[in-house]
Amino acid sequence: MATKGKDFAGLSVALVTPFKDGEVDYETFRSQIEFQIEAGTTCLCPVGTTGESPTLTHEEHERVVDFVVQTAAGRIKVMPGVGSNSTAEALRLTKSAEKAGADAALQVAPYYNKPTQEGFYQHFKALAEETGLPQCVYNIPGRTGKNIEPETIARLGELENITMVKEATGSLDQASQVLASTNLTLLSGDDSLTLPFMAVGGEGVISVAGNIVPKDVIALVEAAARGDLHAACQQHHKLFTLCRDMLGLATNPIPLKAAMQMLGRDSGEMRLPMTPLDDAGRTKLKATLTAYGLL
Questions:
Q1: In a domain, 64, yes or no
Q2: In Å, what is the CA distance from 2 to each residue of 6, 8, 175, 182, 278?
């Protein structure tokens, strides 16, 4: 059976949301989108964790999705984060993204309220059946508080509109189990696990590092896809050092936004409760970016 969601294989970038004086900075946002299109990125994923969706109002959320879709203008796929811990709210956001012209929907597992596995199934089933967009199930128990078990994902994979899973459990065993029991396109949710996941059948990544080095992430994904293990390993080790020394400094997207500010691509501004990287972190980050050749 052909893999569902295969047209989203490759690099998807979890876009930051740029701010200026407390408001979304659409001028900077446009340049960031164009940067990804020029790099050859497959898909843009706005208003996710990296996009600080928890501190956007629903009105801002919908406007950002509409802006990204309109700016992309069919030149690149758009899969916004539209998940919620309320099924009704996730459905409303998904329908809004569908109306805006998004290509797919990234659905984070309901968080905080910790549904049962049957609750997870019924949540994603409702989203898949009540909207026309392909759905990507986003499993990140480190943030949501509960894992969507592989058996539940296998059940979900039987539904027509559920075509992808963003695997951010950090478990190669879980990724392997999902791949063995479904025909979903599996995308890594962790930059450092892209190569291991692709080695067992994954088809790409929804990347944070892709905000600053998309061509390097694409080189890794393409080498892995064609079976060039030597080239893929070289890119993996290069990117691993960057991701470890950058993203390990603080909660995402704090160090990423600091890096983009240093590179002249973002103001670095965030909304509370997210706070800027401290001076010691910025010193380490500058050294990391310099060693990588970005500064």
A1: yes
A2: 8, 14, 18, 11, 48
Query: 138, 146, 257, 292: which one is catalytic?
Result: 138
Q: Is residue 292 part of a domain?
A: no
Q: What is the pLDDT of residue 2?
A: 64
Q: Is 50 annotated as a binding residue?
A: yes
For residue 5, name the pLDDT band (cuts at 50, 70, 90): confident
pLDDT digits (tens, 9 = 90+) for 202-245: 999 999 999 999 999 999 999 999 999 999 999 999 999 999 99
The CATH number of residue 24's host domain is 3.20.20.70
CA–CA distance, 270 with 276 (Å, rounded to integer): 7
Mean pLDDT, residues 99-123:
98
Please confirm, yes or no, whether 138 is among the known catalytic residues. yes
> Quick check: is 111 catalytic?
no
Task: List the domain range (segments joined by +) for residue 159.
Answer: 6-225
Distances (CA, A) of 242 to 39, 55, 142, 287: 19, 27, 22, 10
User: Is 206 known as a binding-site position?
Assistant: yes
21-43 mean pLDDT: 98
Query: What angle, rounded to 10 degrees, do the helices at 214-225 and 26-39 form?
Result: 30
Residue 291 lies in a domain: no
Number of domains in the chain: 1
Cis check: omega of the bond before 110, within 30 degrees of 0? no
Model pTM score: 0.97
In a domain? residue 164: yes
